[in-house]
Write a structure and sequence with these properties.
This protein is α/β, with parallel strands linked by helices. It contains seven helices and ten strands. It is 37% helix and 26% strand.
């Protein structure tokens, strides 16, 4: 029988060692080993105990189930902290965006006056249905004394000017003038940050006639008359959506103002002219009411 080459026997030795080869193969190997020292040494080296393998510290820790779980929890906590910071940043950015938006709207409203408030998105006027006329008198000089009450805290948006419904210039006379009053709801921003007035009741003195002396008006010359006269024919309140509440119209009869009202108006006029409060005792019913003179 021909001798089997050592290379073939060495290829078969792992199978022989683990007893996973056929019986005939085992016999071939066992017949070869007594005659071949090289193959015997190769088999002995395979059967020798392997030296212990030392793993790096981090590998040993990660092989421990408890340590791996701890590391996983630490990773989760890190991601949770990152998520919390991102959420806080979103809240902060949203807050400042709202503040800046309110400031921009307030600035636009201040610059543009009452005209921008008529746009639906900016219309904060108190609705005509939420305003009532509680006092309407005629003063001795013919002017009107009016008290309006709102269902909401508000500021005065417009009052007093006698304008022409026909589009006439303010420097022309007309006897069908209209006087408009408007309230604007007081916002939280305006109340606490801009110190806006916050009342529900306001009294007004609206002139029956407004006279402009041409001799005292620069840039205009008399054309047969020494004065321009504007006569009031309609007083109304204009609220949200341009809805109107008629307060007085030409031909409507109204009561003469009581003496207490006359005194209140006179006191307010003197205070505006002199800047001195005479501390005149006024009825307590006007404690929460603002009197506005034209």
């Amino acid at each position: 029988m021909n001798k089997i080459p050592c290379d073939i026997i060495k290829d078969l030795l792992p199978l022989y060692k683990d007893h996973v080869c056929s019986k005939k193969t085992m016999e071939l190997v066992e017949n070869h080993l007594p005659e071949c020292e090289s193959c015997r040494e190769y088999l002995e080296a395979m059967e020798a105990e392997l030296p212990p393998v030392t793993l790096p510290p981090c590998s040993t820790e990660q092989s421990d189930g408890h340590t791996s779980a701890s590391l996983a929890l630490e990773d989760i906590e890190v991601f949770q902290k990152i998520a919390q910071k991102l959420n806080w940043m979103k809240v902060t950015i949203s807050f400042f965006a709202v503040i800046i938006t309110i400031m921009v709207i307030s600035l636009i409203n201040t610059i543009s006056g009452e005209y921008i408030t008529k746009l639906p998105i900016f219309d904060k006027r108190v609705a005509a249905n939420d305003v009532s006329v509680t006092e309407l008198y005629q003063l001795k000089n013919g002017d009107f004394y009016i008290t309006l009450e709102s269902d909401f805290p508000c500021d005065i948006l417009s009052y007093g000017s006698i304008s022409s419904p026909d589009g006439k210039s303010y420097m022309e006379s007309y006897d069908n003038g209209q006087s408009r009053l408007s309230f604007e709801k007081t916002s939280i921003w305006g109340k606490f940050f801009l110190n806006h007035l916050s009342y529900k009741s306001f009294s007004f003195v609206i002139p029956y006639q407004e006279i402009l002396n041409l001799d005292e008006t620069d840039g205009y010359q008399s054309q047969g008359s020494s004065a321009i006269v504007h006569t009031t024919a309609l007083i109304y309140y204009e609220g949200k959506g341009n809805e109107q509440l008629t307060i007085w119209k030409e031909g409507q009869k109204i009561a003469a103002a009581p003496e207490m009202i006359e005194q209140r108006v006179l006191h307010q006029q003197r205070r505006q002219e002199t800047g001195i409060d005479e501390q005149q005792e006024i009825s307590s019913k006007y404690a929460d009411n603002i009197l506005v003179l034209y």
